[in-house]
Protein backbone atom coordinates (compact mmCIF):
# COMPACT_ATOMS: atom_id res chain seq x y z
CA UNK A 1 0.00 0.00 0.00
CA UNK A 2 2.87 2.37 0.75
CA UNK A 3 4.09 2.33 -2.86
CA UNK A 4 0.68 3.51 -4.08
CA UNK A 5 0.67 6.20 -1.41
CA UNK A 6 4.07 7.43 -2.61
CA UNK A 7 2.91 7.44 -6.25
CA UNK A 8 -0.26 9.34 -5.34
CA UNK A 9 1.67 11.90 -3.25
CA UNK A 10 4.30 12.34 -5.97
CA UNK A 11 1.68 13.07 -8.62
CA UNK A 12 -0.15 15.50 -6.36
CA UNK A 13 3.10 17.23 -5.35
CA UNK A 14 4.13 17.52 -9.00
CA UNK A 15 0.80 19.08 -10.00
CA UNK A 16 0.87 21.40 -7.02
CA UNK A 17 4.44 22.62 -7.65
CA UNK A 18 3.72 23.00 -11.37
CA UNK A 19 0.62 25.07 -10.61
CA UNK A 20 2.50 27.16 -8.04
CA UNK A 21 5.30 28.02 -10.46
CA UNK A 22 2.79 28.83 -13.20
CA UNK A 23 1.00 31.23 -10.87
CA UNK A 24 4.30 32.93 -10.03
CA UNK A 25 4.43 34.25 -13.59
CA UNK A 26 6.49 33.76 -16.73
CA UNK A 27 10.14 34.62 -16.21
CA UNK A 28 13.28 33.05 -17.62
CA UNK A 29 15.47 31.20 -15.11
CA UNK A 30 18.29 33.69 -15.71
CA UNK A 31 15.93 36.57 -14.89
CA UNK A 32 14.80 35.32 -11.49
CA UNK A 33 15.22 37.68 -8.57
CA UNK A 34 16.91 36.48 -5.38
CA UNK A 35 13.50 36.28 -3.71
CA UNK A 36 12.08 34.16 -6.55
CA UNK A 37 15.06 31.82 -6.34
CA UNK A 38 14.64 31.40 -2.56
CA UNK A 39 10.95 30.61 -3.00
CA UNK A 40 11.71 28.11 -5.78
CA UNK A 41 14.20 26.27 -3.54
CA UNK A 42 11.84 26.25 -0.56
CA UNK A 43 8.90 25.01 -2.64
CA UNK A 44 11.02 22.19 -4.05
CA UNK A 45 12.17 21.21 -0.54
CA UNK A 46 8.61 21.22 0.79
CA UNK A 47 7.46 19.10 -2.13
CA UNK A 48 10.07 16.48 -1.24
CA UNK A 49 8.97 16.51 2.42
CA UNK A 50 5.31 16.09 1.43
CA UNK A 51 6.23 12.95 -0.54
CA UNK A 52 8.74 11.53 1.92
CA UNK A 53 6.79 11.93 5.18
CA UNK A 54 3.92 9.46 4.70
CA UNK A 55 2.60 9.94 8.24
CA UNK A 56 1.99 13.63 7.68
CA UNK A 57 -1.26 14.87 6.16
CA UNK A 58 -0.48 15.76 2.55
CA UNK A 59 -2.51 18.96 2.43
CA UNK A 60 -0.94 20.20 5.66
CA UNK A 61 2.47 19.49 4.12
CA UNK A 62 1.74 21.65 1.04
CA UNK A 63 0.09 24.47 2.98
CA UNK A 64 3.47 26.29 3.39
CA UNK A 65 3.73 26.31 -0.43
CA UNK A 66 0.46 28.24 -0.59
CA UNK A 67 1.84 30.67 1.99
CA UNK A 68 5.03 31.14 -0.06
CA UNK A 69 2.95 31.77 -3.18
CA UNK A 70 1.09 34.48 -1.30
CA UNK A 71 4.39 36.05 -0.18
CA UNK A 72 5.69 35.99 -3.75
CA UNK A 73 2.55 37.68 -5.11
CA UNK A 74 2.69 40.32 -2.39
CA UNK A 75 6.36 41.16 -3.00
CA UNK A 76 5.78 41.18 -6.78
CA UNK A 77 2.97 43.69 -6.24
CA UNK A 78 5.25 45.83 -4.05
CA UNK A 79 7.99 45.73 -6.71
CA UNK A 80 5.48 46.77 -9.36
CA UNK A 81 4.12 49.72 -7.39
CA UNK A 82 7.19 51.00 -5.52
CA UNK A 83 10.64 51.64 -7.01
CA UNK A 84 12.39 51.62 -3.62
CA UNK A 85 10.84 48.24 -2.77
CA UNK A 86 11.93 46.97 -6.19
CA UNK A 87 15.52 48.02 -5.53
CA UNK A 88 15.51 46.32 -2.10
CA UNK A 89 13.93 43.08 -3.32
CA UNK A 90 15.51 42.74 -6.76
CA UNK A 91 18.70 44.79 -6.41
CA UNK A 92 20.07 47.51 -8.69
CA UNK A 93 22.22 47.30 -11.85
CA UNK A 94 25.92 48.05 -11.34
CA UNK A 95 28.28 49.72 -13.83
CA UNK A 96 31.36 47.48 -14.09
CA UNK A 97 33.12 49.14 -17.06
CA UNK A 98 32.80 52.79 -18.06
CA UNK A 99 34.66 54.22 -21.05
CA UNK A 100 36.94 51.19 -21.29
CA UNK A 101 37.94 51.48 -17.60
CA UNK A 102 37.08 49.10 -14.79
CA UNK A 103 34.93 50.38 -11.93
CA UNK A 104 36.68 48.29 -9.30
CA UNK A 105 34.82 49.74 -6.32
CA UNK A 106 31.59 48.35 -7.76
CA UNK A 107 33.25 45.04 -8.66
CA UNK A 108 34.35 44.57 -5.06
CA UNK A 109 30.92 45.54 -3.78
CA UNK A 110 29.33 42.86 -5.97
CA UNK A 111 32.14 40.34 -5.25
CA UNK A 112 32.70 40.16 -9.00
CA UNK A 113 36.27 39.25 -9.99
CA UNK A 114 38.30 39.70 -13.17
CA UNK A 115 37.88 36.07 -14.22
CA UNK A 116 34.08 36.42 -14.02
CA UNK A 117 34.21 39.59 -16.09
CA UNK A 118 36.58 38.29 -18.78
CA UNK A 119 34.59 35.06 -19.10
CA UNK A 120 31.33 36.93 -19.68
CA UNK A 121 33.00 39.30 -22.14
CA UNK A 122 34.41 36.34 -24.13
CA UNK A 123 30.93 34.82 -24.20
CA UNK A 124 29.86 37.96 -26.05
CA UNK A 125 32.79 37.79 -28.47
CA UNK A 126 34.79 40.54 -26.72
CA UNK A 127 38.39 39.85 -25.73
CA UNK A 128 39.51 43.09 -24.09
CA UNK A 129 38.10 45.53 -21.57
CA UNK A 130 39.12 48.53 -23.66
CA UNK A 131 36.75 47.42 -26.43
CA UNK A 132 33.83 48.17 -24.11
CA UNK A 133 32.25 51.58 -23.71
CA UNK A 134 29.84 50.46 -21.00
CA UNK A 135 29.24 47.16 -19.17
CA UNK A 136 26.39 46.85 -16.68
CA UNK A 137 25.94 43.94 -14.28
CA UNK A 138 22.17 43.56 -14.13
CA UNK A 139 20.26 42.66 -10.97
CA UNK A 140 19.76 39.11 -12.33
CA UNK A 141 23.53 38.56 -12.78
CA UNK A 142 23.65 39.02 -16.55
CA UNK A 143 26.23 41.36 -18.07
CA UNK A 144 24.95 43.93 -20.59
CA UNK A 145 27.77 45.16 -22.82
CA UNK A 146 27.97 48.14 -25.18
CA UNK A 147 31.04 48.12 -27.41
CA UNK A 148 33.00 51.15 -28.52
CA UNK A 149 32.40 52.15 -32.12
CA UNK A 150 35.24 51.78 -34.63
CA UNK A 151 37.29 49.82 -32.13
CA UNK A 152 39.83 47.49 -33.82
CA UNK A 153 39.71 43.83 -32.82
CA UNK A 154 42.53 42.83 -30.50
CA UNK A 155 44.14 39.41 -30.67
CA UNK A 156 46.10 38.95 -27.45
CA UNK A 157 45.06 37.97 -23.95
CA UNK A 158 45.59 40.48 -21.08
CA UNK A 159 49.25 40.83 -20.10
CA UNK A 160 48.52 41.78 -16.48
CA UNK A 161 45.50 40.80 -14.38
CA UNK A 162 45.06 41.81 -10.73
CA UNK A 163 48.68 42.97 -10.41
CA UNK A 164 50.19 39.76 -11.82
CA UNK A 165 51.98 39.29 -15.14
CA UNK A 166 50.36 36.68 -17.39
CA UNK A 167 53.46 34.98 -18.83
CA UNK A 168 51.49 32.78 -21.20
CA UNK A 169 49.93 35.86 -22.77
CA UNK A 170 53.38 37.48 -23.08
CA UNK A 171 54.65 34.43 -24.98
CA UNK A 172 51.60 34.49 -27.24
CA UNK A 173 52.29 38.15 -28.04
CA UNK A 174 55.99 37.33 -28.59
CA UNK A 175 57.03 39.84 -25.93
CA UNK A 176 59.45 39.62 -23.01
CA UNK A 177 58.77 40.61 -19.41
CA UNK A 178 61.60 43.16 -19.64
CA UNK A 179 59.89 44.81 -22.63
CA UNK A 180 56.62 44.99 -20.70
CA UNK A 181 58.23 46.55 -17.64
CA UNK A 182 60.09 49.12 -19.79
CA UNK A 183 56.88 50.07 -21.63
CA UNK A 184 55.07 50.51 -18.34
CA UNK A 185 57.86 52.68 -16.91
CA UNK A 186 57.70 54.92 -19.99
CA UNK A 187 54.02 55.44 -19.26
CA UNK A 188 54.77 56.19 -15.61
CA UNK A 189 53.76 52.86 -14.06
CA UNK A 190 56.52 51.59 -11.79
CA UNK A 191 54.69 49.06 -9.60
CA UNK A 192 52.92 46.23 -11.44
CA UNK A 193 51.03 45.34 -8.26
CA UNK A 194 49.04 48.55 -8.68
CA UNK A 195 47.83 47.53 -12.14
CA UNK A 196 44.42 45.90 -12.26
CA UNK A 197 44.43 45.17 -16.00
CA UNK A 198 46.87 45.65 -18.86
CA UNK A 199 46.44 44.60 -22.49
CA UNK A 200 48.37 45.05 -25.73
CA UNK A 201 46.84 47.12 -28.53
CA UNK A 202 47.46 46.30 -32.18
CA UNK A 203 49.92 49.19 -32.52
CA UNK A 204 52.06 47.74 -29.68
CA UNK A 205 50.86 50.33 -27.15
CA UNK A 206 49.53 49.28 -23.75
CA UNK A 207 46.07 49.82 -22.34
CA UNK A 208 46.54 50.14 -18.56
CA UNK A 209 43.93 50.21 -15.84
CA UNK A 210 45.15 51.12 -12.34
CA UNK A 211 43.55 49.65 -9.20
CA UNK A 212 40.97 52.08 -7.79
CA UNK A 213 41.70 54.59 -10.55
CA UNK A 214 37.99 55.45 -10.66
CA UNK A 215 37.94 56.62 -7.03
Structure report:
The protein has 215 residues and is an alpha+beta fold. The chain contains eight helices and eight strands; from the N terminus they run ααααββααββββααββ. The strands form two sheets. The chain has a four-stranded antiparallel beta sheet with strand order 2-1-3-4. A hairpin with a 5-residue loop joins β3 and β4. The longest helix is centred in the first third of the chain and has 24 residues, at 58-81.
Key terms for this structure?
elongated, alpha+beta, 4-stranded antiparallel sheet, 215 residues, 49% helix, 15% strand
Rounded radius of gyration (Å): 25 Å
Q: How would the global form be characterised?
A: elongated
Count, helices: 8
Measured between the Cα atoms of the first and last residue, the distance is: 69 Å
The biggest beta sheet reads: 4 strands, antiparallel
**Number of DSSP-assigned strands:** 8
Approximate helicity band: 40-55%
Strand-residue fraction?
15-25%
Give start-end ranges of low-pLDDT stretches: none
Mean pLDDT: 81
* Structure class: alpha+beta
The largest sheet has its strands arranged as 2-1-3-4
Task: Encode the helix/strand succession as letters.
Answer: HHHHEEHHEEEEHHEE
Quickly describe the structure.
The chain has 8 helices and 8 strands, in the order ααααββααββββααββ. By secondary structure, the protein is of the alpha+beta class. It has helices spanning 2-23, 34-52, 58-81, 83-90, 104-109, 114-123, 167-172, 177-186, and strands at residues 94-98, 101-102, 132-137, 143-147, 160-161, 164-165, 195-200, 206-210.
Amino acid sequence: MEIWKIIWRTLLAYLFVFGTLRLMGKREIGELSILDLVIFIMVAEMAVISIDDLKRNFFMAVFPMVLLLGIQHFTAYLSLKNQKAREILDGKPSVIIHGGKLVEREMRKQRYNMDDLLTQLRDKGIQHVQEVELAILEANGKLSVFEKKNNPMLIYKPLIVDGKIQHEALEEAKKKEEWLRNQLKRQGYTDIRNISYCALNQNDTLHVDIIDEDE
